[in-house]
Design a protein that fits this description.
Blueprint lengths: L11 E3 L4 H9 L4 E6 L1 H4 L4 H4 L7 E6 L5 H10 L5 E6 L1 H15 L4 H10 L12 E5 L11 E5 L5 E5 L7 E3 L10 H19 L6 H23 L4 H21 L3 H13 L3 H4 L4 H12 L4 H7 L6 H12 L1 H8 L2 H5 L8 H4 L8 H15 L7 H11 L1
Parallel strand pairs: 1-8, 2-3, 2-4, 4-5, 5-8
Antiparallel strand pairs: 6-7
Helix pairs in contact: 4-5, 7-8, 7-9, 8-9, 8-13, 12-14, 12-18, 18-19
Length: about 400
């Protein structure tokens, strides 16, 4: 018998210090490189880091959102021989850093990397990547405490790099670095964390431990997201949102994601819809769908949202409307695009984790109903699609 999905996280989480104070102690005299995104050096955020020790051996600051395989190859080639990597940025930066240290440890063997990404071939047991120190500047992906990294193929296919050796050695949580997040990024990353938490609950691999972490994340997001949008410079609110993202990441890293994430991929790959919006706009409809299979399974979500079990979908819809999710969604998505999708919405590695099975046609109906409720001005078919879904139950 194989024991699957045990909870494990070897990452040491550092709180209560500024990021540069913590990293200074963690680095010591080791030779290091910094991976970040283009905006941070221009804002002067790197000054305190680059003065540490003798300074970084390299600053690689051209990480784009949703990193692609080709950019990971370039990043690994540019990475010098160092003792440790510091990744400072959002989920894309942290995921790119994981990809780069893995490929560097593979001797830049792209064939081995693609066999892992495309075919699920395990990375070699003798792969020995340098340690990774993460400093998350957004509160969404939870990548600072997971063994996973999202890498997109240049053919718009979403891949995951996954190995226990890719757990960051340390995650340094400094909520002050999150205060510069603009409102839409704050919202999108929080919705990503919310989706991780909810997907961990309606998951075949859930446990009492993951349910507890997920419920904490949902509650913290519910209680603090509006305040984070209204008071972006409030460090204590940002701290709570960081805790929510980390808790959701720990839960999701154990269970993996499920149906809402499966549906999300073509929206990001083909339309550029930010991942947090793509993986969350269907949550209410997925909740309705899953309640027909096992309503009690959503009890942890209802408790965290502060509503009855039956009210979970409507509570989510009302909340997302208040947050303006539909306004963002409407800038990227059309009903006709969703209608053109079918099998594209089913990634078996994700959808198979959902407590209720589904096919591409039904997933398309869920996505349409969700879109038309959040963006009613875009189509007059919302009521029709909702009726179709209800009659199919």
């Amino acid at each position: 018998m194989v024991l699957s999905h045990p909870f494990s996280c070897p990452t040491r989480v550092i709180e209560g210090h500024t990021y540069h104070q913590a990293v200074a102690q963690l680095l010591g005299a080791r030779r290091w490189a910094l991976i970040t995104s283009r905006g941070w050096p221009g804002r002067g955020a790197m000054a305190d880091l680059t003065r540490l020790g003798s300074g970084p051996a390299a600053i690689l600051d051209d990480i784009e959102p949703n990193p692609r395989v080709s950019s990971i190859v370039q990043l690994a080639q540019a990475l010098p021989d160092i003792d440790v990597v510091v990744a400072f940025g959002g989920g894309s930066v942290l995921d790119a850093a994981k990809g780069a240290i893995a490929l560097k440890a593979l001797g830049n063997d792209q064939v081995a990397l693609m066999a892992h990404l495309r075919d699920g071939v395990a990375l070699p047991a003798n792969m020995d990547p340098v340690p990774l120190i993460t400093i998350p500047t957004t509160s969404g992906t939870g990548s600072e405490v997971t063994r996973w990294g999202t890498i997109w193929g240049d053919d718009e296919v979403k891949y995951s790099i996954n190995d226990a050796k890719l757990y960051p050695a340390y995650a340094v949580l400094d909520p002050a670095v999150c205060t510069s997040m603009p409102a839409e990024l704050t919202l999108g990353t929080a919705l990503d964390a919310l989706s991780h938490a909810m997907e961990a609950v309606w998951n075949k691999h859930h446990s009492a431990l993951t349910d507890g972490m997920a419920a904490q994340a949902i509650r913290l997001i519910r209680e603090n997201l509006a305040a984070a949008l209204e008071h972006p410079a409030d460090v204590e609110i940002r701290r709570r949102m960081q805790t929510a993202a980390l808790s959701a990441g720990l839960a999701m890293a154990t269970t993996q994601t499920a149906l809402a994430h499966s549906i999300s991929y073509p929206f990001t790959a083909k339309l550029g819809l930010p991942h947090g919006f793509a993986c969350s706009f269907t949550l209410a409809e997925v909740a309705r769908y899953n309640m027909a299979e096992d309503g009690a399974r959503l009890g942890a979500i209802a408790s965290a949202l502060g509503c009855s079990l039956a009210a979970v979908p409507q509570t989510l819809e009302d909340w997302f409307t208040e947050l303006g999710v539909g306004k963002v969604l409407g800038r990227y998505v059309t009903a006709s695009f969703i209608e053109s999708l079918s099998g594209d919405l089913i990634s078996r590695a994700r959808a198979a984790n959902n407590i209720r099975d589904i096919d591409g046609a039904r997933a398309r109906q869920l996505a349409l109903a969700a879109f038309e409720k959040l963006c009613p001005a875009e189509s007059g078919q919302g009521a029709q699609n909702s009726a179709m879904l209800a009659s199919a139950e």
